[in-house]
Write a structure and sequence with these properties.
Number of domains: 1
Oligomer: single chain
Helix content: 10-25%
Largest sheet: 2 strands, antiparallel
Bound molecules: iron/sulfur cluster
Order of helices and strands: EHEEHE
Structural class: alpha+beta
Length: 63
């Protein structure tokens, strides 16, 4: 699984990083960074949950 982050859309709410800190973090400019190019299978559910809570739909999950 991969997670694509649209960093132009991200508004830095940080909800994704609250839900899945193993997958998402915010950089110094409060823009999301995806920590795994390929999300390990053990983190897939968290990655999906983090992507779902984004209020501006900046995160897209693909397999
Ligand atoms: S929840 Fe969405 S807007 Fe907020 S930091 Fe994550 S990607 Fe950015």
């Amino acid at each position: 699984m991969q997670v694509h982050a649209d960093r132009d859309k991200c508004e830095g709410h940080g909800l994704c990083a609250d839900v899945a800190p193993e997958v998402f973090e915010l950089d110094d400019d409060a823009v999301v960074v995806v920590l795994h190019e390929q999300v390990p299978s053990a983190l897939e559910r968290k990655a999906e949950a983090g992507a779902r809570v984004c209020p501006v739909a900046a995160l897209r999950v693909s397999t």
